[in-house]
Amino acid sequence: MGLQEFQVIGRHLPTTNEPNPKIYRMRIFAPNEVVAKSRFWYFLRQLKKVKKASGEIIGVNVIHEAKPLKVKNFGIWLRYDSRSGTRNMYKEFRDLSRADAVKSLYQDMAARHRARFRSIHILRVVEIAKSDDVRRPYIKQLLTPNLKFPLPHRVGKSAATFVANRPSTF
C-alpha cells in the first residue's frame, strides 16, 4: 500500500443565507485520490456540519516531498481506536518522505497494537529539524556522528580450495 500526501480543499455549498461559505483544507495520506476525498468528507463530517451531499470539493492536489533523497526525522501525533478505547499517541520515524513515514506508522501500529487503517487518525506530521528535539531513544541512537554498523560473520576469500585450518569469521 503506497501512500501519497494529498491536499484536499472543500466547502459547504453556497446558500442564500451563506453565499460565501468557509473553505476547509486538509492534508490527507491515502493510496489514491478517491480515498483521499472519502477521508476528507469523513473528517469534515466529524469536525464541522458539512457532508458530501451538502458540500463540494474545490481541489485535490498531490503534495510532493521537497528533498526526497535526504533522510529526515518525523514526529507524528495520532489518535486511534484500541480494543479498550480511544488513545492519543506520539511516535517518531526516520524516513525519506512524510508519506513513507506515515506508511511506516501504519505498519508499526498494525504490528504493535493490531490497529487497522480505518481506526487511525493522523493529527499532525512534523519534520524534526534539530537533533536535540528528538525524544525517542530508538531514533536518538541513529543520530550519533560517524555511526558504523558492524558486519559480523564475514567469510574471507582464500587462495587455496582446501586448507588445513578453518576460516576465522569474527
Main features:
170 residues; alpha+beta; 6 strands
Explain what this protein looks like in three dimensions.
- With 170 residues, the protein is α+β, with helices and mostly antiparallel strands.
- It has 3 helices and 6 strands.
- It has a 3-stranded antiparallel sheet with strand order 2-1-3.
- A hairpin with a 4-residue loop joins β4 and β5.
- It is elongated, with a radius of gyration of 23 Å.
- The two termini are 40 Å apart.
- The mean pLDDT is 93.
Care to give the gist of this entry?
This protein has 170 residues and is of the alpha+beta class. It has three helices and six strands; from the N terminus they run ββαβββαβα. It has helices at 33-47, 98-113, 137-140, and strands at residues 4-12, 23-30, 55-63, 72-81, 86-95, 120-128.
**Contiguous helical run count:** 3
Strand line-up of the largest beta sheet: 2-1-3
Round the mean pLDDT to the nearest integer and report it.
93
Strand content: 25-35%
SSE pattern: EEHEEEHEH
Low-confidence stretches: none
**Helix content range:** 10-25%
Shape: elongated
Termini separation: 40 Å
Secondary structure tally: strands:
6
Q: Return the structural class.
A: alpha+beta
Largest sheet: 3 strands, antiparallel
- Rounded to the nearest angstrom, the radius of gyration is 23 Å
